[in-house]
Design goal:
By secondary structure, this protein is of the alpha/beta class. Helix content is 35%, strand content 17%. The strands form two sheets. The protein has a seven-stranded mixed beta sheet with strand order 1-7-6-5-4-2-3, sandwiched between helices. Helix 2 crosses helix 3.
Length: 343
């Protein structure tokens, strides 16, 4: 694979090489003109994100959210109808979705529900086939909030070696106390790490994330990714979000979210229709109710939306941690269930 050969971009030149319009739009106050294509790969942003995520710039590709990174990785590593992807269950459904789109063989390995949905590395290793090219590990896991221990991850990386790339999705890493596994990139050539700005930085609407890994793999992923993948407004928005003052605000917001998460744990435990609250290193809680469907309907009446997954989690709901006012509204909605058949 070779990257798309885009028209050369040089500052302070007359660009007559890319079929762009000479008319500069008056819409929006952007530092870069919108009549010109953005950089094929935004270098300043790439460097800033690499600094934030703890890797070198050549070890990172900026993507349209970490969802695009999942798609790129699967399309790059898996030949349709020949190669396979292994995922744990329950976990983020987009791994399964993109594997099915690519026509990749899919293996699902159940987590250990009796041990707070811990990821079973022995079961993963036993389930792998010769054709298993990718193993996705969401840590902290969505929707269970659990983290794969570092020594278990390293065992998985070592055991699979050249046979499989291990993709660690760290979308929620900032809400726990564990360091990013990007620090392992120099030791394991089969490690890829997904990061996002959607959660801790509060930029879900900007659609910006990244995949970090060995430079030679990043170059291949870049060749698969469409040119000009990130729009100019997005690039400038995220550049601004990565300034020190904005990062300080985001860090304070994460601390507030963690404090609210712990407040919710205490408050939810007081309801007799709450069966179990799983420990979480993310910005959400997985909660088992005596009647999850009734809880969800009652909350909807109070304009509070929760997430139901069904299957093995049919009696559970995932509750994202909101602002103090939003969390108070959730608790008021749950208060209306006191004394009902659900309690």
């Amino acid at each position: 694979m070779h990257a798309y050969d885009a028209a050369e971009q040089v500052d302070n030149t007359i660009r007559l090489n890319a079929n762009e319009s000479p008319r500069r739009s008056t819409i929006g106050n952007f530092r870069r003109p919108l009549n010109r294509y953005p950089e094929v790969r935004p270098q300043k942003l790439q460097t800033a994100l690499a600094n934030r995520f703890g890797c070198r710039a050549d070890q990172l590709l900026v993507t349209r959210g970490s969802s695009e990174a999942i798609d790129l990785v699967i399309r790059t590593f898996c030949r349709a109808g020949e190669d396979g992807v292994l995922v744990t269950s329950p976990s983020f459904s987009m791994y399964r979705h993109y594997a099915e789109v690519q026509g990749a063989d899919l293996i699902e390995v159940e987590t250990l529900a009796e041990h707070d949905f811990a990821i079973d590395v022995d079961a993963i290793l036993a389930a792998c086939k010769d054709s298993t090219r990718l193993i996705f590990i969401c840590s902290p896991n969505n929707p269970t909030g659990t983290v794969l221990a570092r020594d278990e991850l390293e065992r998985l990386l070592t055991e699979r070696g050249d046979a499989s790339a291990i993709v660690v999705d760290e979308a929620y890493i900032e809400f726990g106390d564990k360091p990013s596994v990007t620090e392992l990139l120099g030791r394991y050539t089969n490690l890829l790490v997904l990061r996002t700005l959607s959660k801790a930085l509060g930029f879900a609407g900007a659609r910006c994330g990244a995949v970090a890994g060995p430079p030679e793999i990043v170059r291949i992923l870049s060749a698969v990714q469409a040119p000009y993948a990130l729009a100019t407004p997005v690039v400038e928005c995220v550049e601004d979000a990565l300034q020190d003052d904005q990062l300080a605000l985001a860090e304070a917001a994460v601390l507030d979210t963690v404090a609210e998460r712990e407040r919710l744990v205490v408050a939810l435990a007081n309801y007799d229709f709450v069966v179990k609250i799983w420990p979480s290193d993310a910005n959400f809680l997985l909660v088992r109710f005596t009647d999850a469907a009734t809880v969800m309907r009652r909350c909807e009446v109070q304009n509070v939306l929760l997430r139901h997954f069904g299957g093995a989690l049919d009696d559970c709901l995932r509750i994202s941690v909101g602002s103090p006012d939003e969390n108070d509204q959730l608790l008021r909605a749950l208060d209306t269930l006191k004394g009902t058949n659900n309690g």
